Every structure is written in C-alpha cells, then in structure tokens.
Amino acid sequence: MAVITKFVVVREGVEKMTFTSKKEADAYDKMLDIADNLLPFIEQSALGLDDSATEKLCFYLAENKDQLMGLLKGGVAPKSAPTKKAAKKPESKT
Questions:
Q1: Cα dist from 60 to 8, 21, 57, 74, 90, whole Å
Q2: What whole-number distance in Å separates Cα of residue 86 and Cα of residue 1?
Q3: Is the dihedral of CA 73, 30, 24, 92 positive or negative?
C-alpha cells in the first residue's frame, strides 16, 4: 500500500487545486493572492471589461508577475512569450 501526500489549495471553502509538493501549492496560493489583489485595481479602471475578462486578466498578470515586474521597472519584454494558460483556471493537478 502506498501513502501519497497531497497539498490542497482551498479558497473560501472551495478546493482550487491539488499538488504533490508544498512548494508548488504555496506558489499557486500566492498567485491566487496576487490575482485577488489585482481584481479591485482592474475593476476601477475605465477599460469596460466584463467580469470574466477582468478575472482572466488578473490571473494572467499574476501568473506572469516576474515578466510584468521587469516591464514595470523599465525593462524590455522577454524574448519568450508569457504563458497563455492563465486564461484557464485548472481545477486539479496530481
């Protein structure tokens, strides 16, 4: 019999994703915190985005925070394209 340790990220009582390492779970939880903090900032803009587009944008920016921070500090865009998986919210990873 095998014993498997799983780390589950839970938000507001809802299981968001499951990981096999604490480091991955903590990184995902931090990304969700960043996206949650970006939401009111993006909502107050005059962009006219619907709720779904606003949420996708927040996840995209949070998931690509390292590249975004470089750009905000005056750097140039990285040669490799940022990830596009931010538009989807995965439910579980095992």
A1: 21, 23, 5, 20, 13
A2: 36
A3: negative
